[in-house]
Specification:
- There is one protein chain.
- The chain is of the alpha+beta class.
- It has 2 domains: 2-75, Ubiquitin-like (UB roll), CATH 3.10.20.30; 84-161, DNA polymerase, domain 1 (Orthogonal Bundle).
- Helices cover 38% and strands 14% of the residues.
- It has a 5-stranded mixed beta sheet with strand order 2-1-5-3-4, with helices on one face.
- The chain has helices at 22-28, 84-91, 101-114, 120-127, 138-161, and strands spanning 2-7, 10-15, 47-50, 53-56, 69-71.
Length: 162
Amino acid sequence: MESTIYINNTQKQLNHEGGELLLDTLRNHGYHEVKRGCEEGECGACMVLLDGKPVNACRVFTASTAGHEITTVKGIGDIHRPHAIQQAFVESGAVQCGFCTPALVLATHHLLKTNPSPSDEEINRALDGVLCRCTGYVKIIDAVKLASQKMKQIASETIEDT
């Protein structure tokens, strides 16, 4: 089966089996930043944004994403041009083994797009579906707060430039 899927703002024609999960299709086509975790929708490591909303790629059939936009962590920034959220995670020491980091960055991205000034409770709720086995989440929450500040700063500088 072949589907047209938009991945990180690029139209792709992807071959896949009819009942194949998005996680498998993405990884089979080189998107290794989408991590394979529990494969049961419990750990959140395989999170991507589907039309801007977080979903676990292990719970979505590829065929259902035809014509939709998938965003992986590389779709918001990469090592050469990191997003403010990615920079905040590094600066806050929130990156440990890195396995959950792509999903946490995407969850943070979604949160800050919908709520630029989240409370601690809102941050906890937004990150709830992503398990991190390395930390106690303190540095991750610090990173979300720093990312919020960085994104507000970028927005205010953009407004000043216009």
